[in-house]
Amino acid sequence: MALSRSACAIPQYLSLLVISFLALHQASPSYASDTISPNRSLSGRQNLTSAGGQFVLGFFAPSASSKNYYVGIWYNKISLLTAVWVANREIPVTDTSTSELKISDDGNLVLLDQSKGIIWSTGTRIPSNSTVAVILDDGNLQLRDETNSSQVFWQSFDHPSDTWLPRDKLGLNKATNQLQHLTAWKNKADPAPGIFSLEIDPNGTSQYYIIWNMSQIYWTSGVWNGHIFNLVPEMTKNYIYDFQFVNSSTETYFNYTVKNDSIISRFVLDYATGQIQQLTWMENLKSWMLFWSQPRQQCLVYAICGPFGSCNDISKPFCKCIEGFSVKNQTEWDLGDQSGGCERKTQLNCGRDSSGNSETDDVFFPLSNIKPPDNSQILATVGSDEDCELACLNNCSCTAYSYNATGCFVWHGALLNLQDQYGSDGSTLYLRLAASELQSSRSKKGVVTWIIVGVVVVVVACLAIIQWRRRSRRMIRKSKAVGGTMVPFDYRELQRATNNFSHKLGGGGFGSVFKGSLPDSTVIAVKKLEGLHQGEKQFRTEVSTIGTIQHVNLVRLLGFCSEGSRKLLVYEFMPKGSLDTQLFHSDSTALDWKTRYQIAVGTARGLAYLHEQCRDCIIHCDIKPENIVLDASFVPKVADFGLAKLVGRDFSRVLTTMRGTRGYLAPEWITGVAITAKADVYSYGMMLFEIISGRRNLEQTEGGIAGYFPKLVATRLVADGVESLLDPRLGGEANLEEVERACKLACWCIQDGESCRPTMGQVVQVLEGFLDASMPPIPRSILLAETPEDIRFFYELSSKQSSQSRSNASSSPQTDSTKSNGSGV
Ligand SMILES: *[C@@H]1O[C@H](CO)[C@@H](O)[C@H](O)[C@H]1NC(C)=O
Ligand SMILES: *[C@@H]1O[C@H](CO)[C@@H](O)[C@H](O)[C@H]1NC(C)=O
Ligand SMILES: *[C@@H]1O[C@H](CO)[C@@H](O)[C@H](O)[C@H]1NC(C)=O
Ligand SMILES: *[C@@H]1O[C@H](CO)[C@@H](O)[C@H](O)[C@H]1NC(C)=O
Ligand SMILES: *[C@@H]1O[C@H](CO)[C@@H](O)[C@H](O)[C@H]1NC(C)=O
Ligand SMILES: *[C@@H]1O[C@H](CO)[C@@H](O)[C@H](O)[C@H]1NC(C)=O
Ligand SMILES: *[C@@H]1O[C@H](CO)[C@@H](O)[C@H](O)[C@H]1NC(C)=O
Ligand SMILES: *[C@@H]1O[C@H](CO)[C@@H](O)[C@H](O)[C@H]1NC(C)=O
Ligand SMILES: *[C@@H]1O[C@H](CO)[C@@H](O)[C@H](O)[C@H]1NC(C)=O
Ligand SMILES: *[C@@H]1O[C@H](CO)[C@@H](O)[C@H](O)[C@H]1NC(C)=O
Ligand SMILES: *[C@@H]1O[C@H](CO)[C@@H](O)[C@H](O)[C@H]1NC(C)=O
Ligand SMILES: *[C@@H]1O[C@H](CO)[C@@H](O)[C@H](O)[C@H]1NC(C)=O
């Protein structure tokens, strides 16, 4: 297995646009032309190329195995066939050599199938008797008068498929009342209009909507305030794009241009995710890179997993069927269309028995931590859990119920928009299943449960024996320290131990750290927490959870003190201090390469443990050299973990209290997407660069910015080798293979798209040499940083965000949209 570009840069769901091309050669000579005229039609493998050679019009097949062909427009200069427009979306042709795209007698452009029947037409009234169809360099196909090119009767830009190209207007023509909308493909292999569409509000406001099945609006851009759309402030003019909103008496539309012509960029409404995505072609990687998408959270897309499907923003794939259900049409799921959802494995008995009295055959299965579907019905008269269950049981169309303090809620028919692992906001939904279904799954579960119980009993017994032996060998150092559990300290005790907090070791995001020593001369580090607004109970719960997390690469929490507002944590003391002092301070001797590599590996192991092996995934949120401390033999230990919050699933709430540090913050902190463990991977990547170079990534001088190390790596990795990237203090003393591996890995870690970044577990494997890192794509946010201003732009964004978050730290959680700040593009 390899960490490869193919796994990343072309996410599976994008591959619809990557269409295999008919690699057949044309027998007849090609016309060097961009025009279909009355005496020249198109069929077979013929194609038209726009005058400047940007776009091609012709027949294509959506996949290599497909026998269906479509007339479409695709990019001429890129190697992956990517259709931006399709004419006959719904009716494919099977034989291109006998099909024909031609100007018909009434002047329209028509597509004739093998039996010469019209299967697609521009279908407009043409006041001229001589028209031509021309493919233009911006990807627009125009049907116009042969002699007067400004008389345009029809153009593909007015009828977009799923792609919004630069210069294409997306809006409303008030004169003709014509609305341009994007409609996603049905699936990877079928360009027919799918279930998601995007359009401007037909009622005349300036907001754009993404709509499910032409009925449910699940995303809006917010209204145009004259400068930006309220809810997507990042979609604005910047040094790469020019966006423009126009409202005149005849039309309302939005259009954009890419300032640098050599950048190939498009927006597409994706069939698999229901998101509007902005993609840019990376020639050196031969792939499209995802750069921006909305809605940010996958599970906000309406019915994305279909009936009885459950969505999870973090898992991959994000859809699964709930208990007792299985995928309805696997072929469609595999093609990226989950809208069909799931079906019962065992039919319900209710209503099938002619006696009409078969309630006893259905049972309820509790789904916990679920975000229930929206369309619930409240049964006001029902006052208890049992009655609620009975009320549901007595109506055969009732599929689920939930009882809580507000009352009894029931659902009828298909369940849509379920989300699992919804954390503390979730509720328990009782799902109606056939009794036989539950029995079979219970018996399986029962066996598993007993095995687990057995294993746990054995493990506990072993631990107890070990513990007992240890105890009998050693004296318990401190009367309160019982069996490795955490020690509660008195404030005065710690005051004495730290000599009244006189020896400050450092200040972190959560408070200052002081050195101290216990009466038995154990050296400790005491952290005085600041700005905690937690209740006593919650504090103790969280602290004891942190205390149970033990790993050789995580700082060990020994005890705590909680007396009113005085909250302190007691850690083991690390004699070599934090990594930043070892790396950046000129008076310290430079760490040799071997040590640096071990620090990189150890830190990665500690983080992998936090992310993957703890009971709840813990996202550190503030990885930087200051938070990595070193013991006497330079073994790295991650500090401050778990303080941000113990995170189960919904990270958006955490964001408001986050204190990430600029320069290490992943783009999703800025753009407002839900934070996952991949945000730590990003910060780790940034730190890895600093471990390699021995310098801060951004070197600021009085005159401005001297260099941006990640960009240097990204460019030199390709060009002139990695030796030049190494900390000069090492004098070239390093395993260059390891240096290269670390450089590539760091580039992978700082990819803009979370899904492109490796997991911390993969990072460990790469560093240990068990997994190969291929050449990474250059992250766009870094690649596009051309001038010092650009670099500062990307860099400063993160500080804006973090200071904004800080000022809001105590207020109620913000919504995704208001978190976005400034232009993220
Ligand atoms: C267009 O057709 C010509 C020959 O007719 C072929 O050489 C060329 O590759 C085709 N271009 C595309 C983009 O298919
Ligand atoms: C098609 O007709 C146009 C005039 O309508 C003429 O100029 C052109 O040469 C013709 N092309 C061919 C291939 O016959
Ligand atoms: C249509 O074409 C004929 C000649 O082919 C010409 O005499 C006539 O004026 C044209 N009509 C229009 C409406 O252009
Ligand atoms: C071409 O068409 C445009 C728009 O219909 C019109 O304004 C212009 O006069 C026409 N030019 C000629 C030469 O007919
Ligand atoms: C447009 O207005 C009509 C009538 O006021 C309303 O029923 C409909 O929901 C509105 N549509 C949208 C998309 O807001
Ligand atoms: C566009 O302008 C008209 C007046 O010219 C105004 O009534 C309308 O509200 C505007 N529409 C939007 C979407 O701003
Ligand atoms: C979409 O809407 C149509 C009618 O409006 C309905 O027949 C169809 O079942 C809906 N599709 C889904 C997947 O619900
Ligand atoms: C949008 O379209 C109008 C009219 O075609 C054009 O003048 C303007 O330059 C376009 N704006 C951008 C940003 O492309
Ligand atoms: C446009 O982008 C290309 C490739 O990124 C770059 O080489 C070129 O200098 C840019 N041109 C301008 C005018 O910025
Ligand atoms: C599954 O979906 C595919 C593609 O839409 C369709 O051809 C096939 O008949 C479906 N299979 C079943 C069992 O419904
Ligand atoms: C079951 O519930 C549905 C929806 O509330 C209702 O229309 C129907 O009449 C109920 N059936 C019975 C038998 O109560
Ligand atoms: C009870 O459940 C309903 C339906 O899921 C939900 O809307 C409501 O907020 C819940 N009430 C409480 C107090 O949790």
TrEMBL record:
The keyword Hydrolase does not apply. SUPFAM superfamilies: alpha-D-mannose-specific plant lectins, Protein kinase-like (PK-like). Gene3D superfamilies: Bulb-type lectin domain (2.90.10.10), Phosphorylase Kinase, domain 1 (3.30.200.20), Transferase(Phosphotransferase) domain 1 (1.10.510.10). It is an enzyme of class 2 (transferase). It is found in: Membrane. Residues 1-32 form the signal peptide. Residues 815-825 have a biased composition (Polar residues). This is Receptor-like serine/threonine-protein kinase. It comes from Musa acuminata subsp. malaccensis. The lineage of its organism: Eukaryota, Viridiplantae, Streptophyta, Embryophyta, Tracheophyta.
